[in-house]
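Q: My labmate handed me this sequence with no annotations at all. I'd like to see what the chain might look like in three dimensions before we decide whether it's worth expressing. Could you predict it?
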Amino acid sequence: WRGEVIGCPSGCSAIVDTGTSMLLGPSKEVAKIHSLINAKHNVIPCNARKALPDIVFTINNVDYPLPARAYIGKVRVRCWMPG
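A: Here is what I predict for the chain of 83 residues:
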């Protein structure tokens, strides 16, 4: 969190699917992220998005930062993070 590894510390497999806008992952790892951003049942206050850090995926030693606006979706008046 904010610079430290919070998921897959020993590495893990991943699939990049450019045909979807959803981010999915192992439930244990996603639950850690939800906890760190104070998401309750995948929902977070929309005004909190501005304060959230990027989530950085490191693939083959290359960092791919993902800003909160890309990992927090908005549906009507609720903001949520898929899992």
